[in-house]
Write a structure and sequence with these properties.
This protein is of the alpha+beta class. It has 2 domains: about 150 residues, Beta-Lactamase, CATH 3.30.450.40; about 120 residues, Beta-Lactamase (2-Layer Sandwich), CATH 3.30.450.40. It is about 30% helix and about 25% strand. The chain is built from 8 helices and 10 strands. The longest helix has 19 residues.
């Protein structure tokens, strides 16, 4: 398969190990595509991120090309200070904003550049608020910098238009405290347990041994991730008859001293809510555009 950066003439800018792993379309590009499609006034959207540890920060996702362009002095300053830079471009009809790009736990992983159609200085405040909303929405869909470079979809045969994905989107919208949510179920094509819906892509990823253990577990499996900033809970999902049909992974913000049992209890309530929705139709892999 052609690789994303090879196709765009970017191979020479990446370490050999990184360029060998970057796919035709990365998850970061999917996020940019969704963002631009949802806002007619957004003229440019780009992510500057280092594609590997120690590498320079470059454009890795964009609606206007320029892939591989290095971060300029302003963008480097944004990453170093975590401050937002904004200003009207010459002509006064475009507002350019450069914001720290954050992952789901608030770590700075790069720079998000946005340019908007702007109707003068009086429009800047509203667009600045909108930029903050765009950045926040993206952050809720990014596990970490490496997540942006996942192939999208991870399995080329997978779809993101499943009932599981619709359930994930609805639950995250209804529960803003949920930082991470993923649902695995049986693939109708292969019968394997795969990721069918998530807040971070990776659709079609096959379950590993730990995931399969969760399917048969009688108690939640927990762990602390993202350098101690996220508490994760894995739970089996059951149909109305009590048979295990999949798994749910949920992540909440976490700090030292947080009440882990309270977070587990919250995840159980979320699992119960999801299972109530599954009672009438447990087919998680059903197409549901």
């Amino acid at each position: 398969m052609l690789k994303h950066f090879v196709r765009l003439g970017l191979l020479g800018l990446l370490p050999a190990t990184a360029s060998a792993q970057v796919p035709l379309k990365i998850y970061g590009q999917e996020l940019i595509d969704r963002t631009v499609a949802g806002d007619r006034r957004l003229l440019l959207a780009q992510m500057h991120v280092a594609p590997a540890a120690g590498a320079a920060s470059v454009v890795v996702a964009s609606n206007v090309g320029q892939f591989g362009s290095p971060a300029d002095a302003t963008e480097l300053e944004v990453m170093a200070t975590n401050k937002v830079e904004a200003g009207l471009l010459p002509g006064g009809t475009r507002l350019k904003m450069e914001l720290p790009l954050l992952d789901v736990v608030g770590e700075t992983i790069g720079v998000l550049t946005l340019e908007w159609s702007c109707h003068g200085a009086g429009d800047m405040a509203a667009l600045s608020r909108r930029a903050g909303q765009v950045r926040a929405a993206l952050s809720r869909r990014i596990l970490n910098a490496a997540n942006l470079f996942d192939q999208f979809p991870l399995d080329p045969a997978a779809t993101t238009s499943t009932r599981a994905q619709k359930l994930v989107d609805g639950l995250q919208a209804a529960h803003p405290e949920v930082e991470v949510l993923a649902v695995r179920g049986r693939s109708g094509a292969t019968g394997e347990l795969v990721l069918l819906g998530s807040t971070f892509g990776r659709h079609g990823k096959k379950a590993d041994q730990d995931d399969l253990k969760v399917l048969e577990a009688t108690a939640p499996t927990t762990g602390v991730y993202s350098t101690g900033k996220r508490f994760g809970i894995d739970l089996p999902l059951h149909d109305r008859g009590g048979a295990a049909i999949g798994t749910m992974n949920v992540g909440y913000a976490y700090r030292d001293g947080a009440d882990a049992q309270a977070l587990v209890a919250r995840s159980l309530r979320l699992r119960d809510e999801l299972q109530r929705r599954l009672a009438a139709d447990p087919a998680l892999d059903r197409l549901d555009p």
